[in-house]
Amino acid sequence: MSTILPFAKTETQPNYLNADYGWKSWLFTTDHKRIALLYLFSITAFFFVGGMFAVGMRLNLLTPQGLFDHDTYNKLFTMHGIIMVFFFLVPSIPATLGNFLVPIMIGARDLAFPRINLLSWYLYIIGGVVALTAVVQGGVDTGWTFYAPFSSSYSNTHVLITAIGVFISGFSSILTGLNFIVTVHKMRAPGMTWNRLPLFVWGHYATSLIQVLGTPVVAITLVLLALERLFHAGIFDPTVGGDPVLFQHLFWFYSHPAVYIMILPGMAVMSEIVTCFSRKGVFGYSFIAISSIAIAVLGFLVWGHHLFVAGQSMYASIAFSFLSFVVAIPSAIKVFNWTATMYRGSISYETPMLYAFGFIGLFTIGGLTGLFLATMAIDVHVTDTYFVIAHFHYVMVGGMVMAYLGGLHFWFPKISGRMYPEAWAKFAALVVFVGFNLTFFPQFILGYQGMPRRYAHYPPEFQVLNVMSTAGASILAVGYLIPMIYLAWAWRNGPKAPQNPWHAKGLEWEQSPTPPPTFNFDHQPVVTEGPYNYSGEQEEETTLGG
Amino acid sequence: MADSDTTLAVHNSELRHHFDDSEQQFESSVLGMWVFLVTEVLFFGGMFGAYTVYRNLYPDAFASTSHFMNVTIGAVNTAVLIFSSFTMVLAVRAAQLGQKKALVIFLILTLILGCVFLGFKYMEYHEKWVDHHVPGPGFQYEDSRYAHNAQILFFLYFAMTGMHAVHMIVGAGLLIVLIVMASRNRFSSAWYTPVEMIGLYWHFVDVVWIFLFPLLYLIGHTK
Fold it and tell me: What is the ipTM of this complex?
C-alpha cells in the first residue's frame, strides 16, 4: 500500500479506483465495479467495430450502383448485426451500469458470485475474439439470424467460427443473469423489501429472467446448426425431410425475447432518470415494476411474428399476432407512467433528461411501428423491407442506445468521481437526436415504398432518401464520438463530483460515497422508506423556504 | 443477527466477505445452482422441442429406428445412473454429518458408476459406427422407406445423448475435484456447499437420461 500513496494523495478517500493500480488488480478483480468498467471499455470497442460496418453499408448505399459487390455487402450487414446484437446491445446496460449499480442499489457489498462475474467478462471477450477471428478470415454472410439451410449447407463463409463465438458469449450473458437473480433474491440490505426495490433493479431482474431462460435455447440451436454444417445430416435440410422453419422457431424463441434483453435495461435506466429530473415520485411504481416482469413473460410468447411469411400455419400466426399486440401493453404502461411522472413535476433539462426525452419519443415511434408489423396483412407488405430496419433501430438505437448514453451521463459522477462538461454533453445529445432521426426516419418511407433490406444495389428513385439516411448517419457518428472524447477527458480533468450531484434518491447516491469504496458502503445501509421519495423532499424545501 | 454472524463465522472459514453469514451464502449458492439447472433444462429443451416436431412429422420412421437401438445397454445404463444418484445422495448425507471417510467412498462409487455409464455409451456409439448409423455421408439405413427421415432421428440421438455424455464427463471431472477436496479435509458439516451443488447437477444429468431412454430406445416397442 505504501508504494501507491503518492498517487493516492490526489484522491480524498479510498475508493474502488484508487484501491490498487496494477494491471493484475483489473484483470483478476472480483469487484463488480471494476468488472463493470472492463465491460464498459470492451463494449465500447465492439460498438466501434460494429459501427464501422454500418459506415461501410451507408457509404455503399449512397449511390444506386453502390461501392461494393453483393458478397462484400452481405458480409457488412451480417457482421454489423452480429457484433451490435450479441456483443454490444445484449451486454450493454446490464453488464456495465447494471453490474456497477445493482449491488449498490440493493445495499450489497458485491454480486452474489463475484468470481462468476469475472468469468462472464472473460467469456464475453473470448466469444468476441472468436467472432472477430471470423471477420479477419473473410467474414460471414448469413445475416445475424443464421437462417438455415443457407447457413448450414450453402454459405461458403465462416459460419462455424462465428457461431462458436456467439455460443461462447451466450454463456457470459447467462452467467450475468444468474448472478443478478441470486443477488436480488438473497443480498438485499435490511429494509430493502421487494416493494422498495428501485425500478432499475426490477428492470434488470426481468432482463435476467430472459437471459437465463432464452439464451440456452439459442445456444443449443447454434450447436445443432454447427453439427448440421459439419455432418450434413439434414436436420435443417429440406432435401432429406429436415425443416428449415424449425430453425427459425428455435432461433426466434431466443431472439425475440432477446430484444427485450436489449430494451428492458434501457427502460430501467429511464425510470431512474425521469423521476430524478422531475423531482417527483414515480407514477405507478408497482405498475412499472410488474410491467417489466410482464414483458419478460409475454416476450416469450410472440416469436412467431417473425414467421408470418415463412409458411407458418395461419392460425398460429393469428395467435402470435394477438400476443404481439398484448406485449405492447406493458411497454405502453411504462411510457404513460413516465409521462405522468413528469406531469406537474419540476423538470430540469440536464443531459440525462435530454436523452430520456429522446428515448420516450423514439421508443414510442419504434414501439408503435412494431404494432404495424404485428398486424399480419401489413407485415406481408413490409416484410424484409427498410420499414423493419427502421422499426427496430428506433427501438434498439433510438431507445436502447439513448438510454445507455443517458444512464452513462447520469451515473458518470458516481463511477468516475468527476463531473462531465454539461454544455458539450447537451450539444452531443442534440446531435445524436438529429442524426438518428435523419438516418432512420427516411428508412420508414423507403420500406413502405418497397425497398428491400439486405441488397447492395437499388433502383435510382430511392436515392434521395438513401442520401438523407447516409447524411444522418454521418451526423450520428459525430454525435457518438463527442461523448467519447469529453467523457475520457472528464475522467481525469473534470471537476470533482459531490456525493449526490443530482440530489437523487436511492442507496447509490444517498448512502454510498462517490466514487464508492471497494465494499460500496462505509456502514451497513438500512432502508427505511420507499423508493423515489422526492415529494417528501419537496415539502421539506417549501417549509424551509416559506 | 450479529450473534449468529460471529458464531457461524467461527465454524466456517469459507465465508466470503460480501455475505453477512453462512446461511445467506449457502442459500445463494443453492439458488444459483437451481437457476443454472433451469438454463440446462432449456438447453436440452431445444433438442426435445426438435424431437417433438420431427416425431410428429415422421412417426413411423422414428418408431422404426428403435429396433436398431441397443435396449439392453440402454436399460443397464439407466439402472447404473439411478444407482449413481443413490450413491450421490449418500455422499451428500455423509458430508452433512461430517463423515469424511464415507463421503470419499460414496463419491468414488458415484464416479465409478458414471464411468461405467460412459463405457457402455462408448460401446453403443461404436456399434452405431459399425452399422453405418452415424448421420452424414456414410449413413445407411436398412429400411429404405425411412432412410432419409431415420437419419434425422439418429442425428437427434447423437446430439442428445452426446450432449448428455458431455455433461456426464464434466460431472466426472467435478467428482474428481470433490474427491480431492474431501480427502484433504476441506469439508465439514458447517461447509459442504460444493458437494451439495455437484449433487444437484448429478441428479439433473440423471433425470435427463430418464427422459432420453424411453424417447430414443422404446418408442417402436409400444406397438
Answer: 0.91
